[in-house]
């Protein structure tokens, strides 16, 4: 095992167990584009390299299946798992958030939303939260954007403008950007040392590094409200973290896909070829990383 990958694995074991989350990362990153079930034996083989035993894997997968994230099937004595149909949409939305282009940079106004009192108030607040609104000082805030008519009809919605400095100060407080920035800086420190060696990783190391890269990045970026640049500090660590993630992802992709193609078993044989979405990940950064 490459010493950089070994260091990432050692760091993994210094943290609380996130085996279920790692399995979700594997399915969302590596298996979603291939659209197939995968043998439990393949997962056990890969995770053995991470120092995670079969009992831990089986327990985590059973919990994910019970929650609908995965669906199990059997063929003879072998077990296979695929993404659960009830959760597939969540995997797709997360992939757009992780690999997709950030929101536009030009917004200079914000929405202030106050759901009307009554039985629909809490469901409306939940919908606003899912749309990336921050709850601050008793009100809901977000950069200006179109809203569903049904949501706007049941709320008081105002649009306000402010100067660049005021928008940045408000965003920093409402979305707690300092803590998020620290997470991005940590990501840069951990993965920045891989850039020189990553293109030469063997297939197994490449997939392990890719899995740990996206696992860490996913846990940060899915908490990122993806605010327009006008709401962010001028030196925003999230931009550098995304460029680094894209650079490493491209460097690791071919070798890691080779491991999956050679070792990934399904109910009918080898894993299908990945669809076109795989090569469109981080597409806006191609040639700029």
UniProtKB/TrEMBL annotation:
Supply the source organism for this entry: Acidiphilium cryptum (strain JF-5)
Q: Which GO terms describe its biological process?
A: DNA-templated transcription
Q: Which domain of life is it from?
A: Bacteria
Which InterPro entries has this protein been placed in?
A: PaaX-like_N (IPR012906), PaaX_C (IPR013225), PaaX_trns_reg (IPR011965), WH-like_DNA-bd_sf (IPR036388), WH_DNA-bd_sf (IPR036390)
Q: Which SUPFAM superfamilies match?
A: Winged helix' DNA-binding domain
The protein's name: Transcriptional regulator, PaaX family
Q: Which residues form the Transcriptional repressor PaaX-like C-terminal domain?
A: 175-260
Annotated Transcriptional repressor PaaX-like N-terminal domain ranges read 19-83
- Per the record, a Pfam family? PaaX
